[in-house]
Amino acid sequence: MNKLGExxxxxxxxxHPARIAILEELSQGVKCVSDFxxxxxxxxSNVSQHLSALRHAGLIDxxxxxxxxxYFLKSPFILDLLEIVKKxxxxxxxxxxxxxxxxxxxxxxxxxx
Amino acid sequence: MNKLGExxxxxxxxxHPARIAILEELSQGVKCVSDFxxxxxxxxSNVSQHLSALRHAGLIDxxxxxxxxxYFLKSPFILDLLEIVKKxxxxxxxxxxxxxxxxxxxxxxxxxx
DNA sequence: TTCATGTATTCAAATATTAGAATATATTAA
DNA sequence: TTAATATATTCTAATATTTGAATACATGAA
Lengths: 113, 113
Fold this sequence. Notes:
2 copies of one chain form a homodimer. The first copy, chain A, is of the alpha+beta class. Chain A has one domain (4-86): Winged helix-like DNA-binding domain superfamily/Winged helix DNA-binding domain (Arc Repressor Mutant, subunit A, Orthogonal Bundle). The first copy, chain A, is 46% helix and 12% strand. Chain A has helices at 4-14, 17-26, 33-39, 44-56, 76-86; strands at residues 31-32, 60-65, 68-73. In chain A, strands 1-3-2 form a 3-stranded antiparallel sheet. In chain A, helix 3 crosses helix 4 (44-56). Chain A is elongated, with a radius of gyration of 20 Å. The N and C termini of chain A lie far apart (42 Å). The structure holds a DNA duplex.
């Protein structure tokens, strides 16, 4: 999970409400598929599809206990990501010097205007 | 940038190599469209499209200097995100107790196995 | 005004993602 | 064995994303 391409794949797969919810649930501990169905309002096949996508991206894995497939977090990247997803941010960064109405300002580079 | 939906939109728009590259460039300071073309190997129209997507997600904004459109970072969320995208992570989290070969383990919940 | 440059928009084609339905597989219990 | 439960897979339709080509628009220079 240290090559840029892998991280981009991870971001792509994470950028979905059901999958964020699954990952947050998993950050609390091991869960089986039926556990996810209890709080996600989607079909079982769809839960499986999301789990499969997360697994193929290397973000989660599972073990088996009887009939239950027990999923757990595998990627440390996810923990940091979930943290900033939950974190509160100020609305905007302090911007560069420019007029918010006319949108005029000064280009700092050496290119011809 | 504090509602979950907005963050998910942001993740979706960020999960693309060209857009990550644009954002990393912008984390260094203000750049105009031609600056991006110098290091991205994509067409001008495509650069504009990516910038437009980033802007609509509220991640960047621009000011104008003559003929140049000068873009800058607007969302503090991006800075944290770029940081974890660049950060190195250990391969895997310490997993729960289970056999890596048979994939057997014990479900911690109270559901019937 | 005209020309050149910087940038955005529109359109279309290729490709990818998403979700439901139906079905398949695996395991436990009876 | 059979039945029931837990989960995965396959297929399909709808929708979204991505890109290039062409074109439009805006500004500064001549």
